[in-house]
Amino acid sequence: MIAFFRFNLCLLITALLAGPGFCQVSPGHIGTSERNMVASVHPLATDAGVNAFAKGGNAIDAAVATALTLGVVDGYNSGIGGGCFVLIHTADGEVVAIDGREMAPASAKRDMYLVDGVADGSLSRTGPLASGVPGALAALDQALTTYGTMELEEVIGPAAEIAENGFEVNDVYSGRMESAAEELRQWGSSLLKSDGSIYRPGEILRQPDLANTYRSIGENGIGWFYAGDFAEQTARWMSENGGILEKDDFTNYRTVSRAPVATDYRGYTIIGFPPPSSGGVHVAQILNILENFDLQEIRNRSEAEFRHVVAEAMKLAFADRAYWLGDPDFAKVPLGLVTEDYADELAARINQESSTPVESHGTPPDANSRFFERHTTHLCTADAEGNWVAVTLTVNTTFGSKVIVPGLGVVMNNQMDDFSIAPGVPNAFGLIGAEANAVNAGKRPLSSMSPTIVLKDGQPVMAVGAAGGPKIITQVVWAIINHIDLGMPVGEAIARPRVHHQWSPDRLLVETSLDDATTMNLENFGHTVTRSSTAGISQAISFDPETGIFTGAHDPRTPGKAAGQNQPCRW
User: Fold this and answer.
1) Residue 278: pLDDT above 70?
2) pLDDT above 90 covers what percent of the chain?
């Protein structure tokens, strides 16, 4: 009888998600299990996580296996040539934030991207000057060795096999490759065919150099990457091609264990990542502002007013982001940004009937005395013992700097573009920054990555994160308010159309799946609306304490998979 009920529940929710106002759901986007769960942007990566569970691993083992496989099959988004934030809730209740963000090389200077006094954004986005020191591998290794149960060689080996034997390129990968083909050719990328052409959907992409790199790491540990052959070969290539990354930059790289950001929201505890992530701060800030409004009642009255109020809260938070946020080891980031009193002050500035111009940032309480401690992909894992992991990984824009050092197979990041290369100069995502995020040797650039874990009465009930530059922050907010305020199942919460406002430029990004009437009404509120097919990609897991069932959801806007062991049903 229970199995029959679950089967029909699957059919019902599938029908609902395929209805008007939702993105089309494809097989694998939602999964349920009583044992564990993995949600990621690629089926092979999710399968790697599930296989780690099958070998007796926990959620940390599964997360690292998934992340390393994404570096093979989703290399335009992430990989060991980039960085990550790892947020962990352990079975014994400890909450851990491991900062694996890239760092500026020791030779980096504030004006390194100025040419004749004018900022040249191409230098921070493409080529050898664009890369910071990668931190993803160090962070994943720290998570595995401290909180996992498996060895690095055991979780990286299957990913190496996929790199060597190849995988079938899908439409998304081929499209990303086509968009970056010219720059990939400029730097002689090993991802292209021997004639310089790209891989088309259905063709098999093999990466023998990356397979050898993965196996060398598995056999020798991460020292091979940070103090051995990888660092030496990369430094040599950089020196020969005008870059400034040196072997010592790799050898001196360290992860940082940081205190997570925690805020209460309608009886839930929202755990986010602290600076240099702006995500944890501004997800908390936006939610604190929105707690002043009865969102369900507003939505019952008007869908457009509901979205308008949320957008106005986003706008206020992003104005603060542009001024206050940076690496807390270099910049003084006020703790007052996430206080309820400051949120109440900002909420009072929201006109529920009209868009209000935000000229500049606000000033939180104790701004001069209390501070935080000094293209992207997201995955979530969880197990029945209480281990939960939310990991956001990136090489920044598509295929990062477009540089793959010959013989190594690793896509190098272009994370230096996430610094403010000059006051008021926007980066690739249109974000501007101030002195707090200026280039400095050894500094970590500001990030929008927002891995988030939600607790109810001290127990994890949701993990969520996203990809999409600054839209990461707003996607996480939408997932949380859709799930908590509006009571939507997690799959529905991330499938619904989104709007996004990042203060600068002063325009409201609206997904084309939002109905025309609501969009028109948002314009009537005074918003300058820009339509887009997508406002990013999210993954999430929820847990129902009453039934003991995990539900994983991958964003239906792109291929992916959510799955767990012995799951009762799956879409």
Assistant:
1) yes
2) 74
Beta strands in 108-266 (DSSP E): 114-115, 118-119, 167-168, 204-205, 256-258, 261-265
* Whether pLDDT at 493 is above 60: yes
CB 138 within 8 A of CB 254: yes
Helices assigned H by DSSP within 362-510: 471-484, 490-495
Q: At what angle do helices 471-484 and 279-290 cross, to 10 degrees?
A: 40
How does pLDDT run across 430-467, given as a tens digit for each residue? 544 456 778 889 999 888 899 999 999 999 999 999 99
> What integer pLDDT is reported at residue 11 of this predicted model?
32
Judged on CB neighbours under 10 Å (0-12, 13-18, 19+), 93 is exposed
What dihedral do alpha carbons 171, 175, 178, 180 form, nearest 10°? -140
Long-range CB contacts (< 8 A, 24+ apart) of 215-221? 215/156, 215/157, 215/160, 217/80, 217/137, 217/152, 217/156, 218/152, 218/153, 218/156, 218/157, 218/160, 219/153, 221/141, 221/152
> In Å, how far from its chain's centre is CA 197?
30
pLDDT by residue (tens digit) across 360-390?
Answer: 566 666 555 454 443 689 999 999 999 999 9
pLDDT in the model for residue 412: 97
Q: What's the CA angle centered on 170, arms 167 and 172, to 5 degrees?
A: 130
Question: Bigger pLDDT: 264 or 568?
Answer: 264
Average pLDDT over residues 263-278: 93
Element at 554 (helix H, strand E):
strand 549-554
Half-sphere exposure of residue 244: CA atoms within 13 angstroms, side-chain side: 17
Round to whole Å and give the CA distance between 314 and 264. Answer: 18
Distinct helix (H) and strand (E) counts, the chain = 19, 21
Which of residues 561 and 327 earns the better pLDDT score? 561
Amino acid at 143: A
Q: Are 37 and 563 in contact (CB under 8 A)?
A: yes
pLDDT (0 to 100) of residue 446:
82
CA distances from 91 to 49, 56, 196 (A): 18, 15, 49
Nearest to 557 by CA among 13, 11, 10, 25: 25
Tallying the residues shown for the chain, one arrives at 571
Are 311 and 530 within 8 A, CB to CB?
A: no
Rounded to the nearest 5 degrees, what angle is found at the Cα of 58, between the Cα atoms of 57 and 60?
110
**pLDDT score of 361:** 60
Token pair of 409, please?
């197979």
Cα–Cα distance, 498 to 147 (Å, whole number): 35
- Calpha distance 514→94 (Å, rounded): 40
What's the token pair of residue 236?
A: 């040599």
Q: 505 CB contacts (<8 Å, ≥6 apart)?
A: 430
Nearest to 542 by CA among 499, 484, 471: 484
206-221 pLDDT, tens digit per residue, is 999 999 999 999 999 9
Residues labelled catalytic? 376
Contact 466, 475 (CB under 8 A): yes
Q: pLDDT tens across 91-108, in order?
A: 999 999 999 999 999 999
Rounded Cα distance, 320 and 36, in Å: 38
